[in-house]
Amino acid sequence: MDELQKASKIAITGMKAQSERLRVISENLANADSLAQTPDGTPYKRKVVTFKSELDRANGYTGVKVDKVRPDSAEFQRRYDPKHPAADRDGYVLAPNVNPLIEMMDMREAQRSYEANMNVIESSRQLLSKTVDMLRQ
Q1: What stretch of H or E contains 29?
Q2: Is 63 helix (H, G, I), strand (E, B) or coil?
Q3: Which of 30, 99, 101, 107 is most open to solvent, judged by the fewest CB atoms within 10 Å of its CB?
Q4: pLDDT tens by residue, 57-101
Q5: CA separation, residue 67 to residues 49, 111, 122, 128 (Å)
């Protein structure tokens, strides 16, 4: 496997990992306003993605993949809403530990990483095409 192919394969692993990260971020945003339904219930818990390096021994390159999608250990938010069915005796309802601003920043970072990997693939294609053109002359 030549270096351009390796670069493309590594970029593809990065794109797959960031795609999964974007899916998890979207899930977090979709559930940001979901509250517990009972006083002793728990609301949606934010999820975070962790990555790990993965060695492809057959082709001689190291890519990246999603290691785990795990719940965030941050505390739930508390909102004062004494009329909500899930309110405790003090009138507070547990709300998800999702901060939409943080999720949007994470989403933008994942998008940029995805785009950077796309640029690596496009550059590899262009270099390969130019090489083929030079060999034809």
Answers
A1: helix 3-30
A2: strand
A3: 101
A4: 888 889 999 999 999 999 999 999 999 999 999 999 999 999 999
A5: 7, 19, 27, 32
On average, the pLDDT of the chain sits at: 92
pLDDT higher than 60, residue 127: yes
Token pair, residue 21, equals 């990260």
Using CA atoms, how far residue 85 sits from 36, 40, 65, 92, 132, in Å, is 9, 11, 41, 10, 68
Residue 100 identity: P
pTM listed for this prediction = 0.86
Q: Which residue type is seen at 39?
A: P
When pLDDT is cut at 50, 70 and 90, the band that residue 10 belongs to is very high
Question: Angle at CA 50, nearest 5°, toward 102 and 106?
Answer: 20
Instruction: Confirm if 97 and 76 have CB atoms less than 8 A apart.
Output: yes
Task: From 112, 95, 104, 113, select the one nearest 29 (Cα to Cα).
Answer: 104
